[in-house]
Design goal:
Layout lengths: L1 H19 L2 E5 L2 E2 L7 H7 L1 H13 L4 E4 L8 E11 L10 E11 L2 E12 L10 H24 L2
Parallel strand pairs: 1-3, 1-4, 2-4
Antiparallel strand pairs: 4-5, 5-6
Helix pairs in contact: 3-4
Length: 157
């Protein structure tokens, strides 16, 4: 009986420690100067704020927005950088849309883990009737899930 109680206490303590880890998510994501995004897409699709929003949604309440790129004492900061954007305006008729996002977990100003995720879409069902921003939205939503999954795995370490 004592062994079961210790196992339950240990499991509770480790899940509580994980819950206490404060994860701040940089908002908005940074658009790398060499990302290659066209002016119309940059102006109309709000890639930086939308990428952050999809990551926050996929984290399901496990993160808190951090406005800007300032360093924070204590806790971890998830920094997001859009490093590549491929796709012309004109919806699915103008070809697939692709984005690459680098995610970095930073603790006390030092990068402790990094990953780069790339996703593409041509709009899915009825893609020909979707706008460029709607297709990039699909890409960002999937990237948000990919990054949130990576963050959860890294936070367990």
């Amino acid at each position: 009986m004592k062994v079961k109680a210790l196992v339950v206490i240990a499991a509770f303590a480790s899940s509580s420690a994980l819950a206490e880890d404060k994860l701040l998510v940089q908002s908005p994501a940074v658009l790398d100067a060499n990302a290659g995004v066209g002016d119309a897409i940059k102006r109309e699709c709000a890639l930086e704020s939308t990428t952050t929003s999809w990551v926050m949604d996929a984290l399901a309440g496990k993160g808190q927005r951090l406005e800007g790129t300032k360093n924070v004492e204590g806790g971890k900061v998830l920094k997001l950088t859009i490093v590549n954007v491929i796709g012309a305006s004109g919806g699915a008729w103008s070809g697939p849309k692709t984005m690459t996002v680098r995610a970095e977990l930073v603790e006390s100003g030092k990068v402790v883990a990094t990953t780069t995720k790339t996703r593409s879409s041509s709009g899915g069902a009825f893609g020909g009737y979707k706008s460029t921003c709607a297709i990039f939205g699909r890409v960002m939503k999937t990237l948000g899930s990919d990054i949130a999954g990576w963050v959860r795995a890294e936070m367990k370490h």
